[in-house]
Amino acid sequence: MEYAVEMKGISKSFGGVQALRDVHLELKLGEIMGIVGDNGAGKSTLMKILSGAYQADKGEIYIFGKQAQIHNPLDAFRQGISMIYQDLALFNNLDVARNIFVGRELVRGPLRITLDKKGMYRRAEELIKDLRVDIKSPRMNVARMSGGQRQMVACARAIAFKSKIMILDEPTAALGVTEANKLLGLIKNMKDLGLSILLITQRIPDILAIADRVFVLKGGVRQDILNVRDTTLDDVVTLIVKGKDRNREMAEDIKYQSFG
Amino acid sequence: MENNPSLFKNLSFKIGKIASNYTPLLILLLTIVLFSFIAPNFTTFNNLRLMVRQISFVTISAVGLMFVMVAGGIDLSIGSQIIFTNIVLSLMMSSTYGYGIDPFIAIPVCIAMGTILGMVNGVLSNTLKVHPLIITLGTSYIYKGLGYIIAGGRNIDGLPDTFRVYGQGYVGPIPVPIIIMITVAIIGAYFLHNTNFGSRVFAMGGNQDAAHLVGINIKRMKVVVFAIGGFASGITSVLLLSRVFNGQVTTGAGIEFDGLTAALLGGVSFAGGEGTILGLITGVMIIGVLNNGMQLFGLQDFYQNLIKGALLLAAVGYDIYQKNKRAKETVAKVAG
Hints:
Low-confidence stretches of chain A: 256-260
Low-confidence stretches of chain B: none
Helix content of chain A: 25-40%
Structural class of chain B: mainly alpha
Mean pLDDT of chain B: 90
Radius of gyration of chain B: 21 Å
Strand order of the largest sheet of chain A: 6-9-10-3-11-12
Oligomer: heterodimer
Distance between the termini of chain B: 34 Å
Shape of chain B: globular
Structural class of chain A: alpha/beta
Number of strands of chain B: 2
């Protein structure tokens, strides 16, 4: 089977701390995969490697079956990968349209350097309509937007550039129930548009609501990939807290471990 | 008629926004009105022309400085770049002390040299990973020192007469520096507000980490914006030397503070990511009107410095107040 993403034997350390150890991940075409784990499990590090923000010490990445060299965010973008960060990576000094197109602006003229402002606002308006998101105008300044609206701008940005693989880092963490539900709906819409999605979250019910499979990390080591259909909340939580080798651990080793 | 509280709230918000957007323009108009009453000859054509020619030097270097500031940096070395390039340019052209090189060759060399001095700031900022304020403070001493060493205590004269035209010439009734200032401002405004490069400069100043994550090459951009600052200071150096017509180590000294004050007065944010060339020009004009008006009014230099210093602090304070206000609104929105 061809995968959208294959990460093979990924290892990464920061100084003396081993953040990831020989991690393998396979994302199928057009699926939503939840990435879960306790704080410090290595979820964000793994995804930052895929998005080019970090570089792995060891390991290989394949995108749609072809080996990819991802050294920076631009390389990832060229492979069709977009990452929406927990802290959103938006520009508070720019409006919605400029946020969507920054770094990949629509240009016109013989030198291809003059901004096509009309084109950008028109395209941004179309995106807002297509995604059915709650943003009144592409001229709104993102600084004046709610957390949910800001997430939607970030999603619109990924879709505007026809990303094929989208990584979302804790997208619902700062949202209320209504906004979180709207955003989960939007993520499902994006899957229907043909995107393959990796969703990092601490909210397991979100994963069970919209994901196809769930990938569990613990202490920088892959524990398992579970099919959501055959999985319960307890299964996922147990794997996050105790890991796959839980039977070998003594009770006193387990009871002091925290679950965030 | 029914009272509608949200209508009043909206209206007061809009009035507040308009007032905030046009504050620099209001200050400019107020200063013009004030000096037209208290300073003799302030509104005469000759004085206004003199004033605009005077601000043209600051404006050109301030346009370059603005690229650096919008990108989130600062360049305190502009005046020293001018001192250095001014001495080198005068030595290149001087028949008395230098090599008697033709201005058509010396001028591009001077502008290229300014650009390189700016690039050095960018490269140092990238390699030393220190705030540009410190880097450019350091390079300002170096550039100024080099200028003094090369000048060797001389006032370099013997410049070719054909060189006068850039700082002292006229096209019709308009002095050449004003024409060059307008050209630089238009080109600067085009690149900053209407190109993909300008869009990235604003993005970089708004959120440098996010700019990196969307694939903007921050290191290269830093070198380029500082190079633009140096390019503009190179042009200013040519015009100032042509105006003074004598290579002196005092030419251009401290010009960055007028440029910085003007930029802040004109709404360019100290933190980066905000500002317009039109605002900058308004800011430069406020400084120009103050300088000229206070002189005509008979205020001594130290009073002028006092007022300009107070204005700089007021502009920074206002900028920070606006930023904090917006940050609070953003936090409230995101949390809510």
